[in-house]
Amino acid sequence: MVSGPIKNDMSSKSRLASPEAGAEIAAPTAPLRLQAAKWPDLLAFAIFLGLLILLVLRGASAMDYNWQWTRMMPYIVRNVDGQLIPGLLLKGLRVTLEISFFAMLIALPLGLATALLNLSKRPVSVFIARLYIELIRNTPILLQILIFYFIVAKVIGIDRWWAGVLTLALYEGAFAAEIIRGAILAVSRGQWEAAASLPLGRIDTYRFIVLPQALPLMVPPLTGVLVNVVKHSSIVSVIAIFDLTNEGRSIATDTFMSFEVWLTVAALYLIVTVSLSLVAAWLERKLEHGSST
Amino acid sequence: MNRPENDMLQSSPAIEMIDVHKWFGNFHALKGVTLSVGAGERVVICGPSGSGKSTLIRSINGLEPHDAGRITVNGFTLTENQRDLFAVRREVGMVFQQFNLFPHLTVLENCVLAQTRSRGRTREEAESIAMEYLHRVRIPEQAGKYPARLSGGQQQRVAIARSLCMQPKVMLFDEPTSALDPEMISEVLDVMTDLASSGMTMVCVTHEMGFARRVADRIVFMDEGIIVEDDVPSRFFESPTSARARQFLSQILAH
């Protein structure tokens, strides 16, 4: 019985990895496995990476591509009179981070509220939550941002920046809602019953009993959502917001250095998303440690 | 063991169940149960598995809402209204087979939380009451530990203390020793025996027939959703009237 709750946690974690969210959940933990890798794995990885680079270089030389990596530097940082100022790509990255930050700031409470509505016993609340989740998950995000920008933003009078943030927040909020709901349902029924019998009220039960136990279960899959916000934020380029992707596109069009530009843009996205995954992994370990001692 | 407040029995029962029915889908789990438990009375409910004894005890504090009939606890009637439900649960403590301690809180915090949230006590008051009851279940030294560090018997004693901290009028026990290793059963039964001698109204679903014989004022035997026998322990164990009770007793006492 002492091992009971722990076993329960493990099984619920795997239960959370539902097919629809599976890919997103698996991704963020992948870089961590490198830490535990043995040298034959690393060797295989090095050979694979070498072959990949070779393939790109050969392809480029077959196309007679003229590599101009040195010309990329000013788009990252520029030296103006001895002062370093951010280049266009870093400015774009900043916009991407700002939009992602505010989108996530809205998406998490939205997801929590939707999950609670979905779990309530009132049919109307459940209907509203399901309607929102199914509408968002079953239409293309590109269509959503166009509808938001050309219709909703005009009706409620917000600018394109907020239209982009809200579209992303609504989109990721729907996925967060399902993750949070799954984590709440994974807390054992006995916990609810013990709280109800004491008695604790419904809000106190969520606040002091259920959510603290659900939180460690949510963190890994919510990291996937966080990474997705950053990646999906590139969609705002279609409503003429100059984020990292859009800056990349305009530089590539101006300079014809498409290989260098897009590879740099990809590297910048990777730096952000991998860092987020690492922070989340650290947080996850901390939460697990805290709940078991 | 004498019942301390015999005269309370006549005035108003602590628990009154009248013609209570419960369905799980098509399964008729409780088929018109009528049961009255007086203040200070100790009632043990037994019966084969699937007889509805767990459903019965869980309906007393509304964990299993009943579908028909009437349940009243200390004058509060259970309805679908959340406020009535809360009022009944304030009168009733419950101990579960699986302990159900809160794993992310220490033993002390397990005992303090509901006191401060639902009884309006200050943290200091709640902690001193919690320590008092942890003393009573004989594990004050475990107050700072997390439940996972305790044995099953210790966890169940904490669960009892956690319920007592709310100072309920009635305690419900749903197979409190069924998940325990044999060597830990007696430490929990001892605490329950102490509690019984302090005059607490208790309803207990258990297979511990020795405990039932020693502590219970009445034994209620259930089978297939109805109360088959309701008698004092001596008559129930020595001369059960129904064939089903005789069969149950021979099976449970045989091993």
Question: Can you tell me about this structure?
Answer:
The complex is a heterodimer of chains A (293) and B (255). Chain A has 293 residues and is mainly alpha-helical. Chain A has a domain at 90-292: Orthogonal Bundle (MetI-like fold). Chain A has helices at residues 4-16, 19-29, 33-36, 39-62, 73-76, 88-119, 123-137, 141-156, 160-186, 189-197, 202-232, 244-255, 258-292, and strands at residues 77-80, 83-86. Chain A has a two-stranded antiparallel sheet with strand order 1-2. In chain A, β1 (77-80) and β2 form a beta hairpin. The longest helix of chain A is centred in the C-terminal third of the chain and has 35 residues, at 258-292. With 255 residues, chain B is an alpha/beta fold. Chain B is built from 10 helices and 10 strands. Chain B has helices at residues 6-11, 53-60, 82-91, 107-118, 123-136, 152-164, 182-197, 209-215, 233-238, 243-254, and strands at 15-24, 27-37, 42-46, 68-73, 76-77, 92-95, 170-174, 201-205, 218-223, 226-231. In chain B, α4 (107-118) crosses α5, α4 (107-118) runs parallel beside α6 (152-164) and α5 (123-136) crosses α6 (152-164). Chain B starts with 5 loop residues before the first helix and ends with a helix. The A-B interface holds A 1-2, 4-6, 188, 190-191, 193-202, 204, 208-209, 212-213, 290-293 and B 61, 63, 82, 86, 89-90, 92-94, 96, 98-104, 113-114, 117-118, 146, 148, 150-152, 155, 159, 162-163, 166, 179.
Summarize the structure in short:
The complex is a heterodimer of chains A (293) and B (255). In chain A, 80% of the residues lie in helices and 3% in strands.
Properties at a glance:
heterodimer, A: mainly alpha, MetI-like fold, B: 255 residues, alpha/beta, 4-stranded antiparallel β-sheet, 10 helices, 10 strands, 24% strand
